[in-house]
Design brief:
Two copies of one chain form a homodimer. By secondary structure, chain A is an alpha/beta fold. Helix content of chain A is 25%, strand content 26%. In chain A, the strands form four sheets. In chain A, strands 3, 4, 5, 8, 9, 16 and 17 form a seven-stranded mixed β-sheet that branches. A six-stranded parallel β-sheet of chain A has the order 12-11-10-13-14-15. Chains A, B: Belongs to the zinc-containing alcohol dehydrogenase family. Chains A, B: It is an enzyme of class 1 (oxidoreductase).
Chain lengths: 351, 351
Amino acid sequence: MATAKGYAAESADSKLAPISFERREPRPDDVSIEIDYCGVCHTDIHFAQNDWGVTQFPVIPGHEIIGRVTAVGSDVTDYKVGDTVGVGCMVDSCRSCSACESGLEQYCLEGMTATYNGEDRYDGSITYGGYSDRVVVSERFVVKVPEKLDPASAAPILCAGITTYSPLRHYGVRPGDKVGVIGMGGLGHMGVKFAKALGAEVTIFTRSESKVAEAKKQGADHVVVSTDDSQMEAAAESFDFMLDTVPVQHDLNPYLNCLTFDGTHILVGLLEPVDPPLEAGGLVFKRRVLAGSLIGGMPETQEVLDFCADHGITCDVEMLDIKNINEAYERMKKGDVKYRFVIDMKTLKAA
Amino acid sequence: MATAKGYAAESADSKLAPISFERREPRPDDVSIEIDYCGVCHTDIHFAQNDWGVTQFPVIPGHEIIGRVTAVGSDVTDYKVGDTVGVGCMVDSCRSCSACESGLEQYCLEGMTATYNGEDRYDGSITYGGYSDRVVVSERFVVKVPEKLDPASAAPILCAGITTYSPLRHYGVRPGDKVGVIGMGGLGHMGVKFAKALGAEVTIFTRSESKVAEAKKQGADHVVVSTDDSQMEAAAESFDFMLDTVPVQHDLNPYLNCLTFDGTHILVGLLEPVDPPLEAGGLVFKRRVLAGSLIGGMPETQEVLDFCADHGITCDVEMLDIKNINEAYERMKKGDVKYRFVIDMKTLKAA
């Protein structure tokens, strides 16, 4: 065991504060990593606040981890000391079910082990995330960060990036497709970059006229203000895909109506009951599809990093001193970040 | 114009009764058909009662039509007098949009012309359905009935059959797949036959223990009583496809939970808002798909008739004297038919 330093929430009401804790002993297939950067995902806030009632305190959030390899176990073949690597939303799975064998560990039939607030499959200990100085992860759940990528702005690719990249690839988005992206946060702005890089004609749907200029700046070919009925009518039945990154309840029906027949509405943010109710007729009469998608598997997480390097894609980030994590959470709740906070872990030493 | 005889509802409250009406003059691409049989679909009841508020009275229902060709227009190439043919749910479409060009006329971007209560694209007249002695239809919307098929029991293939066949084919159901069929009416019992013929392992989901024996008789490999929590738990995460034929509001979430990751829940009956609300997490966490599907295109409607002939599949029907159509509607509302009424149109002459 090695003593590590991190930032934790001790209860649903407490602010995050420095903590010392023990990282587990490395196993033969483990990579030990010194963390340089960690992105801040909205999910971190949900766990810190115990919004879903499943948090085990203290919780050390963070699942967009970039760092350098400091040691490797005797069975490790793909990594060596000094490599720049990433760790995303999961650190283990059963590795033998049909999902794991397909490289879709996020859908592991026995359940994946989350990077934080998960339960270690060997010793039952609770996993701790990337708001810390080091982490120990089995090499199957580590990815290589291409040299061409800026490590800090690559961090959010490990969650916000893969979450939007995976469904666009799974559903085969290709040149000429018309893709709508709903929501312009950490996920949405990455979705726009990926859809553009895949050759699609991309439209951002935003609720506010005031965000149109910013949406265009993000590379969207078109912007639809979704609160303007005439714009929504003009957009009817014209999209092949809608990438819906909105994490709170919203009316899906006007967006479904924007899909052409055989179009697909992909949910990557919403986890709650659909309210207002979904109109089944909107699916049936046009053979439309409502699909969900969760992050991505390990091969695809490596693929998205390589894709980003090849296409010059990074996340737009605001660097954060870990001392300011609580203020950052407050800003995120107001949507006040373009588009992802990334903690510079050097600031943890001073904290 | 030719005077025809039929059965019509004159208002939402009236019973169906005999009517004389004019069939339109045949055009060069038209096939004139003397109707032998017409299946009775639940949709007929909805239109007769004006449940959807769109009925134009008098309405002559019926879109599962089997008959013999009595005349063909000068441009008709595929049919000749004496052929046994079928007409399903649509009689026209724009014929030039991307959907029509793909043989998916039911999703015509300009809207298909329904077999009854539709508006003729040339003269604006209202279309009348198959509860009548004759019909005039453009050859593109006519299908050949293979000799091997019994014409009477083939009638419901034109709606109940194609509606269940089309999505099973579209989603590529194949040997080894596990398919659940929800609902055991006209659509459900055809879905079971098709899924079995495609090589799937088929489970019928029924709400009532009393229907288990009948479900087995229908060819299901397994039966799950959906009101039994322990049976539903045992079925969790094990199906590749669920074919949901239930036409009234029902809780989709327990069925979604029966899908494995990447599984697809296909709605072919439900047109109303989904209530209780759909749990978005049930889609996202397992990359599941909720899809809709509407009847089938013309090439596929021909395909399903040929498939039925090749596989010895027909609909289980109860022959009906058209005089008893109102009683049949009452029985259908109670689910009291195995599994489709088919009107013997000879009885119309006596009516």
